């Protein structure tokens, strides 16, 4: 994951002005292992900056995601963000544990395997696989583990 300085560098390289609030956002994402909801980010930022609106926080999250400083994932319980994996812009996808949110890279892109119609121009795609990592499978109760295993 990107460090605070790498996140700031990604933002400034694209012409974004680096304010104290954006430095705080960069630090928050660099120092957080898991994913953060917009509400999590707002609560953290509003405790440091009086009068900060949720809209301002959300707008900054969107800009940081568009610039590639943070990644956005849609979980069943809503939208979450985390620091990008690397500043190299290397295209990849993820497997994500639904319990601990540990993320594993998928080292190939399945997009070429899709059957997109010839008349359709793909301009962006995402591919995430959700499940349970080895540790979370072990920690679950016996009944829960059985419920998580796919039927054969």
What does this structure look like?
The chain has 152 residues and is of the alpha+beta class. Helix content is 39%, strand content 16%. The strands form 2 sheets. A 3-stranded mixed β-sheet has the order 4-3-5, with no helix packed on it. A two-stranded antiparallel ribbon has the order 1-2. The longest helix has 14 residues. It is globular, with a radius of gyration of 18 Å.
Measured on Cα atoms, how large is the radius of gyration? 18 Å
N- and C-termini, Cα separation: 36 Å
- Give the tally of β-strands: 5
Q: In terms of structural class, how would the helical and strand content be classed? A: alpha+beta
Regions with little confidence, pLDDT below 50 for 5+ residues: 144-148
N to C succession of SSEs: HHHHEEEEEHH
Total helices: the number is 6
Beta-strand residue fraction: 15-25%
In what order do the strands lie side by side in the largest sheet?
Answer: 4-3-5
Q: How is the biggest beta sheet arranged? A: 3 strands, mixed
> pLDDT average, as an integer?
88
Measured as a percent range, the helix fraction is: 25-40%
The quaternary state of the protein chains shown equals single chain
Give the overall shape, derived from the CA principal axes: globular
Task: Please outline what is shown here.
The chain has helices spanning 4-13, 20-30, 38-48, 54-67, 134-139, 142-148; strands at 70-75, 78-83, 93-97, 103-106, 128-131. It is of the alpha+beta class and 152 residues long.
